[in-house]
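In full, the data:

***
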Amino acid sequence: MKVVCVGGGPATLYFSILLKLQAPSHDITVLERNPAGSTYGWGVTYWPDMLERLRRHDPTSASAISDGSLRWRDGVAHVGERTTTHEGDEGFAIGRHKLLDILARRAESLGVGIEYGHEVPDRAQLPEADLVVAGDGANSTMRDRHADHFGTHTTLGRNPYLWLGTTKVFRSFTFAFVQTAHGWIWCYAYGYSGEHSTCVVECSKATWQGLELDRLPQPEALRRLEGIFASLLEGHSLIGRSGLGGPAPWQTFRTLTNRTWSHGNLVLLGDAAHTTHYSIGAGTTLAMQDAMVLASSLAGAKTIQPALSHYERTRKSELLSVQSAARHSAQWYENLPRYIQLPPAHMFALLGQRHSPLLPHIPPQLYYRIDRAADQLQSLRRLKQWLGPRLARTLQHRDSARG
């Protein structure tokens, strides 16, 4: 089979690895528009269950990814001058550049051709192929040329956010909430190497405008943010995207879905097919899981279409709970004033419960007490797990009817 992958991200590279492992005779080419080594991004996160899946699919790349990752075991939240710690949380992070380098080297060692600096403005300019994999991100040109067919739908979040790096190495997954004269601003930070961490800053639109972050040039915006998070950074600097002369590249998250994921021999992968809010730290994991399922669906397939249909059905089903969690996580931060005045330990506990569909409909302190009680009684925990989604759907339906 001749396969062309558009976009050289983790999903397409991993897919090419898995397909080559199935059948070395496959002719696979990955086309990446950017030059080699020019990726933008800091660290990406993944969790122990994902590492186990990587080991099952390709132990060689899994070992290299694990060796190149930084591990943390705790969560820490700073709320103003107060700090609370949740022990036992375990996760991993690896620099995006390092992850791409590992996957590219592994793919090339198996015979995959990778062409950097290869812009593909139109599908007609692609070489002939049995399968075209569109892994060119949320702004996929391959997908957008058939937007009506794919049924692409985008929902915009409310809060501006900015993806940054820092020279402060965080050994725990860290949250910091700072109150300013214009409202609360917060960040999520985690180390991904011995020299750097990712630091994602978020706030409401009113706070963003009040702090003039909507119009400050990037260097001035970074200095202002360094002042706001001075106690967290302990003298370390924030690092923005280089080469930007205008305002810092704040964004509003776009949750993207598609009604269908294939069109003829063209199939969507990763962010081209779906996006989930960054606050659940699952974007790269979900994209690579797409690659796993697409490759396994194609294994031994005599024709492409049934395999693509199986891939789409399987991944859409698997994504339902994750997409719900991401939606509620984003809404938790958009409604931060509802939780921020709680005692730090209570607030951090509800931060950990932000994926719950029930939480928005129950007073926070009452939810906290129910959650603590559920931890003690297995029967109550089962009732909460059964009742939560059902009650949430009822309340949402009632609210929609009133609106």
